[in-house]
Amino acid sequence: MNNEIPINPSQRWEWLKYQLRSQGSSLRKLSDELGVTGNAVQLVKYTPYPRMERAIAKKLGLTPHAVWPERWNHDGTPCRERPNRAEKLTTAKAQNRICNKDSGSNAIAHRQMAQGA
After folding, report:
1. pLDDT in tens for each of the 117 residues of the chain?
2. Residue 62, SS3 per DSSP
């Protein structure tokens, strides 16, 4: 494996995909292995996502710090703007966040209007 990881984010992304393909894997296969959607793995390209960063790095036999030095500390912890935030919400907290949040969507009324038209 070529250990010269590109610094440019778009080149790095292509390099990661190439390295996965050279090992007989892909982002899609990785998402299936992790039980997440394909979009979850794609988010790593645009924003820090420690769980996916760890999974991709592990698949390549690297550390997340080696792949994303700007996102990880030397001690193996992710750099965070909100350092006390957990990586996963507990189920109850996640449900409360979803239930208490009004999306402002009026999809049911729109569907009913469309059916009547």
Report:
1. 456 899 888 899 999 999 999 999 999 999 999 999 989 899 999 988 899 999 999 999 999 999 998 888 888 888 876 666 666 544 444 444 444 444 455 556 555 656 665
2. coil
CA separation, residue 116 to residues 1, 93, 105, 110 (Å): 60, 39, 19, 10
67 neighbors 57 (Cβ within 8 angstroms):
yes
**Domains of the chain: total:** 1
The reply to whether 99 falls in a domain is: no
**From residue 50, how far is each of 20, 22, 99 by CA, in Å?**
18, 23, 26
Q: Which helix (H) or strand (E) holds 1?
A: none
Residues contacting 39, CB < 8 A, separation 6+: none
Tell me which residue has tokens 């924003």.
Answer: 47
- Rounded to 5 degrees, φ, ψ at 68 are -125, 70
Residue 74 lies in a domain: yes
Are the C-beta atoms of 73 and 84 separated by less than 8 Å? no
Domain that residue 49 falls in? 36-79
